[in-house]
What we know:
Largest sheet: 5 strands, antiparallel
Number of domains: 1
Structural class: alpha+beta
Number of strands: 7
Order of helices and strands: EEEEEEEH
Radius of gyration: 16 Å
Helix content: 10-25%
Shape: globular
Strand content: 25-35%
Distance between the termini: 25 Å
Amino acid sequence: MSEITSIQMGNKFNDVIRLDEYNGEISVVAAREIKDGKTYPQWVFPQDRDRKPRDKAIPLKVTLGDRETAARHLRYLADVLEAKTSEPDQQQGGQVDDNSDLPF
Length: 104
C-alpha cells in the first residue's frame, strides 16, 4: 500500500485522511498522526454475517476503484458538498458506481 497524499484534519485527535493506492485501487483511509510525525491507519475488526467480529483487524477504509473512478466519485462528493448537485451523474444511468460491491 503506497500513500498518495494525506490531509491533516487539525482536531484534538490528530485525525488524518489518507489517499492510498494498492493493486491499482484507490482508497480513502482513516489514520492518526502520532508525536513523531508518522501517520498510522486506524484498524477495525469487521463483523461477519453472524454479527461477531473477525479475528483479524483491517484498516478502516473505503475503496473507490481505479484512478479514473476514484476521481469521479470524489468530484461528485465535492459537488454535493458545494451544493452543485444532489443527483448522481446521469451519464452513468443514475448510479454513482456501476461495479460497486459496497453495502449501500
